[in-house]
Write a structure and sequence with these properties.
- There is one protein chain.
- The protein has 282 residues and is of the alpha/beta class.
- The protein folds into two domains: 3-65, Ubiquitin-associated (UBA) domain (Helicase, Ruva Protein, domain 3, Orthogonal Bundle), CATH 1.10.8.10; 87-275, Rossmann fold, CATH 3.40.50.150.
- 41% of the residues lie in helices and 19% in strands.
- It is built from twelve helices and nine strands.
- It has a seven-stranded mixed sheet, sandwiched between helices. Strands 1-2 form a two-stranded antiparallel sheet.
- β4, α8 (145-158) and β5 (163-166) form a beta-alpha-beta unit.
- It is elongated and about 65 Å long.
- The structure holds glutamine.
- Residues 89, 92, 94, 184, 186-188, 200, 208, 238 line the site of glutamine (GLN).
- Glutamine binds at residues 89, 92, 94, 184, 186-188, 200, 208, 238.
- It catalyses: L-glutaminyl-[peptide chain release factor] + S-adenosyl-L-methionine = N(5)-methyl-L-glutaminyl-[peptide chain release factor] + S-adenosyl-L-homocysteine + H(+).
- Methylates the class 1 translation termination release factors RF1/PrfA and RF2/PrfB on the glutamine residue of the universally conserved GGQ motif.
- Residues 6-73 form the Release factor glutamine methyltransferase N-terminal domain.
């Protein structure tokens, strides 16, 4: 079996996927340990029977809807290869909007800073920040033990030192005076039909779904964050594309200033944040 013909077969089988060609390429590249360019350059190369069998095992899982990231156990975020598992959300390009904003704030504020990532999952946000600011004192909290374990392993493999802590939001955190707190919390409403489609069907509900129209966790974080922020520190939160106004209202009512929203790569409102003015927790 040649690369090009197997690739065509896979694309035809992945009809339920909105990224069939990319999915086929990712599975083939994983089995052949090659790049996408290689697939195009050597379309007539023959796969061994073992390679064909391995592709077939992956293809059956993909046909059943399993995300490519879970099949291969890895997903790239901010150019960092991260291990993923069904214990965590799969890092998404949307979240890079939060990382970009956080990096801008960190570069404005100078060295010697402390930052906190709440519900770190794979560790994606914390590790992206560390990759750009190696001297940053980074804390990352996670409630799910399997996810925390995975985040620790990702940090170790990449050689970044992060203070990981098992904690349900702020519950186990003693550290204070962070210049930056970031989070991609669960924010989807339980009744959202989007939960029955595509990759999210395989992701942990605890990482996706929140009560109160998806705002319960965001509300709790906004309420408690001032106690942990330094004067002038920022809180940045990822949220659903229709939640920006609600999140800005929550930030303003809590006393945050300079409250704004930034959009993701698709142009959707995706991250809102504000600056904590006082040095006394309100
Ligand atoms: N943005 C993701 C989605 O809509 C959800 C991420 C999250 O809940 N934090 O699929």
């Amino acid at each position: 079996m040649q690369i090009a013909s197997l690739r065509q077969q896979l694309i035809q089988r992945f009809t339920d996927s909105d990224s069939a060609a990319l999915d086929a390429d990712c599975l083939l590249c994983a089995v052949l340990s090659c790049t996408r360019t290689y697939l195009r350059t050597w379309p007539e190369q023959e796969l061994t029977p073992e390679q064909v069998a391995q592709v077939e095992q992956f293809a059956v899982r993909r046909e059943q809807g399993e995300p490519v990231a879970y099949i291969l156990g890895v997903r790239e975020f901010w150019s960092l290869p991260l291990q993923v598992s069904p214990a965590t959300l799969i890092p998404r390009p949307d979240t890079e909007a939060l990382v970009e904003w956080a990096l801008t704030l960190l570069s404005e504020q100078g060295q010697g800073q402390k930052a906190l990532d709440l519900g770190t999952g794979t560790g994606a946000i914390a590790l992206a920040l560390k990759s750009e600011f190696p001297a940053l004192a980074m804390w990352a909290l996670e409630r799910e033990p399997a996810a925390l374990d995975l985040a620790r392993r990702n940090a170790a493999r990449l050689g970044f030192s992060v203070n990981f802590l098992a904690s349900n939001w702020f519950s186990a955190l003693n550290e204070r005076n962070f210049q930056l707190i970031v989070s991609n919390p669960p924010y989807i409403d339980a009744a959202d039909p989007h939960l029955a489609q595509g990759d999210v069907r395989f992701e942990p509900h605890s990482a996706l779904v929140a009560d109160e129209d998806g705002l319960a966790d965001i509300r709790q974080i906004i309420d408690q964050a001032p106690e942990y922020l330094a004067a002038g520190g920022w809180l940045l939160l990822e949220h659903g594309w229709q939640q920006a106004e609600a999140v800005r209202d929550l930030l303003s009512s809590r006393g945050f200033q300079a409250v704004t929203t930034k959009s993701d790569l698709g142009g959707q409102d995706r991250v809102s944040g504000g600056q904590w003015p006082g040095d006394v927790a309100g």
